[in-house]
Amino acid sequence: MGDLIIITAILALAIFSAGIRLLLRRDKTLLDSGESSAVESSTYINGICDEAIDRPPIEPALDVIVNFSESGKCYRWIQSHDSLLEFAESRGVEVESLCRAGECGSCRTRLVQGEVEYTQVPAINPGRGYCLLCISKPKTDLILEK
Fold it and tell me: Which residues sit opposite 132 in a β-bridge?
């Protein structure tokens, strides 16, 4: 009986800890972007973002919209991010990544629409219609399959 109580306590602690980490991650994302806890409003037509943000961003921004089509998230690009991978993570979009240097291809993502520029020459060719999020930035409005 004592073992069951210990196991239950450990599971409860693990679940509580995971919940706190998720809340902290969410709050960190909101704090990093300089936004309030209010959700950014976007209009979607056939799953594509029509307008990303109703208010101007705090940081300097290009007039470029990044649409993560699978997650339904759409945001204005903020130049202070080093890559689309960093930007996606700051917005809560989960992207697999390992090397963060354009060498492994784990962040390879389908580029549905738009153009990216690479911050360095990719070590691997992502293939036509794909990009490596870890070393790319948007040149135009993007629709990414994430």
Answer: 108
Residues 6+ away with beta carbon under 8 Å from 114: 138, 139, 140, 141, 142, 143
The angle at the Cα of 8, spanning 6 to 11, to the nearest 5 degrees, equals: 110
3-state percent helix, strand, coil for the chain, nearest multiple of 5: 30, 25, 45
> What DSSP letter does each residue of 36-56 carry, written as one string?
-SSPPP-EEETTEEEES-SS-
Cα–Cα dist 114/135, whole Å: 16
Token pair 């450990």 is at which residue?
A: 10
The chain-wide mean pLDDT, for the chain, equals 76
Q: 142 has which bridge partners?
A: 66
Partners of 144 in beta bridges: 68, 111
pLDDT digits (tens, 9 = 90+) for 77-115: 999 999 999 999 999 999 999 999 999 999 999 999 999
Q: What is residue 118's three-state secondary structure?
A: strand
Strand partners, 138: 116
Look up residue 99 and give its two tokens.
């090397």
pTM exceeding the 0.90 threshold for the entire prediction = no
Phi, psi (5° rounding) for residue 44?
A: -115, 135
